[in-house]
Structure formats: structure tokens, C-alpha cells
Amino acid sequence: MTDRTQGTDGGTAPAAGAKGPDELRQQIEETRSRLGDTVEELAAKADVKGRAKARAADLRDKAGAMTVQLRSTAVQAGHRVQEKVSHAGHQVQERVSHAGHQAQERVSHAGHQAQERASRAGHTVQDTASRAGHSAPVSRVNSVVQACRSHPRPLMIALAAGAALVAAGLLFRRSRDC
Fold it and tell me: Which positions, given as ranges, span the membrane (predicted)?
């Protein structure tokens, strides 16, 4: 053995002389401990299989974390799409409802106008017939006008159906032109 030991700077420094057997044993024990640590470090660096397993476990953990993150992102994207589709559906529903109300108002207005025109036409026919001295046709026209006044629902339904057919025809023509 030599009298030199490794210093803190990595160089060698002269060993302080042991002043007794106990101090010498202590120095030997410290040297063995340092040597054991160095051997363990070298063994760990030389253990390629163990380092590869540790690296593989590390990569598995990272892949698992990334999978969780991707699933979370996909779920969030799904929720955003669902919200947008729901919002668009509500907008379409509102527009259709509004268009339905407008069509109903137009049909109702057209029905009232038709009823008023029929009433005027009936009165005109009645007046013309009474001037000419024909009372039989007047009574038939009078009964039709009276029936329309007392039961306007069938007339309104017929007018609504006619308006729906006109609207469908216009929509069909528009879709064909596009």
C-alpha cells in the first residue's frame, strides 16, 4: 500500500500519518466505503439491461400520461362540437318556428280576405239577382255565404292547404335553381 489518498479535488495528497491503530482502522473503513460506492456507481453504469428497463418504464409512464391527456382533449373537443350542434339546432328550430308563425298569420289573413271577398261577391250576386227578379239562385248563394260565416274553419283549412302548396312550390323552385 501507499501513503497517498485521493483528495477532494480528485488529486492525490499525502496521507496524514495514523497516530494509532484505531485511527488507521477508521481510515481503512472510510477508504473501503468510498471504494464500495465507486464500485456500485460503475456497476450501475455497466448494467445496460437495468438501464434499458428503467428507460422503458420511464417511456411507458410518459406514454400513459400522454394517452390520458389526448383522451381528455378528445372529450373536450367532443363537448365543444356537441354544444355547437345543439346551438345550431336551437337556431334552426327558432327560425322554423318563426317561419311557421308567419305562414300561419299570412294564411289567416288570406282566409279573412277570401271570406270577405266571398261575402261581397255573394251580396253582389244577391243584389243582382233580386234586381233581376230571381230569388232561387240568391237563396243558394245566400246559404253558401251563411255557411262560410257560421263555419269558417273548413274555408280556413282549404286556404291554408292552398297556401302550403304555393309555399312548397316556391321552395321547390328555389332549391332547383340553386
Answer: 155-172
Question: Closest Cα to residue 14, out of 5, 26, 24?
Answer: 5
- The H-or-E segment that residue 88 falls in is helix 48-132
3-state secondary structure of 12: strand
pTM over 0.85: no
**pLDDT for position 78:** 92
Cell triple for residue 158?
Answer: 282549404
Cell numbers linked to 146: 251563411
How many Å apart are CA 54 and CA 49, to the nearest integer? 9
Q: Regarding beta strands 12-14 and 4-6, do their DSSP bridges make them parallel or antiparallel, or are they unpaired?
A: antiparallel
Dihedral sign for Cα 57, 60, 66, 67, please.
negative
Crossing angle of the two packed helices 152-177 and 136-150, in degrees rounded to 10? 70
Q: How far apart (Å, rounded) are the C-alpha atoms in residues 37 and 120?
A: 116
Lookup: cell for 135? 230569388
Most confident of 25-34, 43-52, 148-157: 25-34
Query: How far is 135 from 142, CA to CA, in rounded Å?
Result: 10
Please give the Cα distance from 31 to 33 (Å, whole number). 5
Summarize pLDDT for 101-146 with one digit per residue, the tens. Answer: 888 888 888 888 888 888 887 788 777 767 776 555 556 767 777 8
